[in-house]
Amino acid sequence: KEIFLKDYKMPDYYFDTVDLKFLLGEEKTIVNSKIMVFPRVEGSKFPLVLNGDDVKLISIKVNNEDLKEEDYVLDSRHLTILSPPTGSFTLEIVNEICPQNNTSLEGLYKSSGNFCTQCEAEGFRKITFYQDRPDIMAKYTCRIEADKSLYPVLLSNGNLIEQGDLEGGKHYALWEDPFKKPSYLFALVAGKLASRDDSFITRSGRKISLKIWTPAEDLPKTEHAMYSLKAAMKWDEDVFGLEYDLDLFNVVAVPDFNMGAMENKSLNIFNSKLVLASPETASDGDYAAILGVIGHEYFHNWTGNRVTCRDWFQLSLKEGLTVFRDQEFSSDMGSRAVKRIADVSRLRNYQFPQDSGPMAHPVRPHSYIKMDNFYTVTVYEKGAEVVRMYKTLLGSQGFRKGMDLYFKRHDGQAVTCEDFYAAMRDANDADFANFLLWYSQAGTPQVKVTSSYNSDGRTFTLKFRQEVPPTPGQAVKEPMFIPVALGLLDSSGNNLSLSSIYHDGVLQSISDNDQPVYSTVLRLTKKEEEFVFTNIPERPVPSLLRGYSAPVRMETDLSDDDLFFLLAYDSDEFNRWEAGQVLARKLMLQLVSDHQQNKTLVLNSKFVEGLRSILTDSSLDKEFIAKAITLPGEGEIMDMMEVADPDAVHAVRTFIRKQLANALKAEFLAAVENNRSSAAYVFNHPELARRALKNTALAYLALLEDAETANLVLNEYKNASNMTDQFAALVAIAQKPGETRDTILADFYAKWQHDYLVVNKWLALQAMSDIPGNIENVKNLLNHKAFDLRNPNKVYSLIGGFCGSTINFHAKDGSGYEFLGEVVMQLDKINPQVASRMVSAFSRWKRYDEHRQNHAKAQLEKILSANGLSENVFEIASKSLAA
Ligand code: ZN
Fold this sequence. Notes:
Elements: E1 3-4, E2 13-23, E3 29-39, E4 48-51, E5 56-62, E6 65-66, E7 72-74, E8 78-81, E9 89-97, E10 107-111, E11 114-118, E12 138-147, E13 153-156, E14 159-166, E15 170-181, E16 188-191, E17 194-201, E18 207-214, H1 223-240, E19 248-254, E20 261-262, E21 267-271, H2 284-299, E22 308-309, H3 315-333, H4 336-355, E23 367-368, H5 377-410, E24 414-415, H6 417-428, H7 437-440, E25 446-454, E26 459-467, E27 482-489, E28 500-503, E29 506-509, E30 520-524, E31 528-533, E32 541-544, E33 553-555, H8 560-569, H9 573-596, H10 605-615, H11 622-628, H12 634-639, H13 646-663, H14 665-674, H15 685-701, H16 707-719, H17 723-734, H18 739-752, H19 756-767, H20 775-782, H21 792-803, H22 806-809, H23 815-830, H24 832-839, H25 850-864, H26 871-882
Parallel strand pairs: 2-12, 18-19, 19-21, 22-24, 25-33
Antiparallel strand pairs: 1-23, 2-3, 3-9, 4-8, 5-6, 5-9, 7-8, 10-11, 12-15, 13-16, 14-15, 17-18, 20-21, 25-26, 26-31, 27-30, 27-32, 28-29, 28-31
Helix pairs in contact: 1-2, 2-3, 3-4, 3-5, 4-5, 4-9, 5-6, 8-9, 9-13, 11-15, 14-15, 15-17, 16-17, 18-19, 19-21, 23-24, 23-25, 24-26, 25-26
The structure holds zinc ion (ZN).
């Protein structure tokens, strides 16, 4: 059933307090819920409809009296109380659930013998009957009873107010959360866990107890997570003035988890891969992800929990904003430019394809069948870009004023994206024109820019033309409000000072109290418009969309020479990288077309020289260099083609990489030699940047055919003293089929078979491989003892990894598609959320040639004809097919 934003209705009843009791058992778990209900309008009379999914009703009482059978209706999804008393009343429900059989990993389930919960978005209804919607905010208590030896630790939200022993080897704990919350933030954990304990003193002097819970043997691996948590708490105080609001903050790591992590009030639950790290077992990428996600979930305490969403269409209100906050946090902890590059790459590689495919939806979707399908890169990452644009338009201080007003107005409320917009606008008295379209129009806007210089008038003109492509359900679009940050470079590479601009014939001064201004933000709001810069002494090279000031595809009339100039001189580091990427994209597309016409491929030597000068520029940040010498991904190039050609794109990217390896061999060797270190592993920016440059160079060198470099790469593997270096060497070696590859892969498994997180890396590396015929290996790995279809991380590594392989997933004979089709149908019976994420790999099927299209279509049809298909998979598969 499809649900629409326009159908939102306020609830007829609110809940004031909720007292839950859990009797956790091996065969069954009994849930007792006592709710104080009151009507929204005093004296009104409506039925009270509760959601319930897979819950067995045992008894139901209203105002202490058992409800008669004719007073309620029970169907497979609802419990409806037909005529509740007028005014307030108490509702008491007892029900039974079986967490031990719950493989969907939503609601209450077991992971490695421990009980845990995941309620967002609509998992609470799998625990008990409830109005399971975020605008129902109530105060909760939670009493947990369980066997003491099996479940020594009992956790829920808020403060522990009572605990003790019970007969029969049982014990209990009573938790009370003083803050009102929606049901999706409820959490419970029970099991054998140990904690790393620490504390944080808030800026107002309160001491917060911090605990990170894992199985005892993993405790040494929680040091970085604890460091990240304390850094996040400090950062939120420093940057947003936001302080933690309870005396206890718990983080629990579980190995079976559908997503990354969950911000349950004071009891965050994490996928263990985003908590556990040691230098030997986790890479720099893992360390960075842990920092970002620990930050993300902590930041939700204000942006999500204290102020939450009115309904699930508003998801980006909390997710876009919180992603923006975690991006800023990571920027401040590392390198801003490099973090921006990574975030924009992610947007381009994952969000752009979604925004131009059958699942394209606005940052605030208009409808959904299953909300879990809308925890997307559009809601999260494009949503974060929308928040970032407010900051670009208002500046840091203006943005902060907007945030302050948002909390002042809405603390304790469930609100909408317009409420956030209004706070930003009102706090700054700002004119945001048609900015709200960012929430309602899907599709990546395309902006074309042409420039001209008039030497007589000393004016420089930029003409912009924007177009928002049609997306499913939205054929015609309005022009958007696009902030374009820019500077103009003179011939020596310096930013020209900007004095004034004619826009629509109106002269605007941009100098600021006679201080020279070197960059500005243009506000595009129309389909076509023109800006004329005055007093420009020479033809400048414009540096446009600095820092990627809007989530658009921009096409300029800059020549290759201009782009090489920007690559060498732009003061905006993001745009330096961008210039290199634009050049690389052009080059790759040209070579793809040459390849398709069977022409001999030749690499432009200017491009090689451009990269050489970046590679050898010691004034540059090393992680920046690593990014700048990395070519755009194959997906990004396929995305720009009329008909995506995986074989040609892969051949071309490999060709360029080999050419670069040959041409820049000496520089790459130097980068490896000069960036080795025998010092103990430390995760900080200079160190990880050093490793990134060394390992990027190593991956190039591994493509060469001589024995000397092959030996070098092998030695890097053997001598590595941390996972970053070891895995990078393994990846480098695994690029080439052969005996060495097989031996080293086996060696790596033998070494790490007891560490499931490392084994997942090993699975993913093999699954993604572009080695011809690798599907057989992937099929074998399905039966490997290290694999388990019930564990999401393993599925994401092996199946998700395989879908990321350009060559093998998109094999012409359809074998890759058929494999995925079969796995999805098996997986759907176990875990619909995970199956649905996997089936998304088909959603771009129309981008390929007819032959591949037919194979993919057959699989989608097969999936849709399966019996008992979940709504999750149905929504993705049917929308993909319909487009
Ligand atoms: Zn989030």
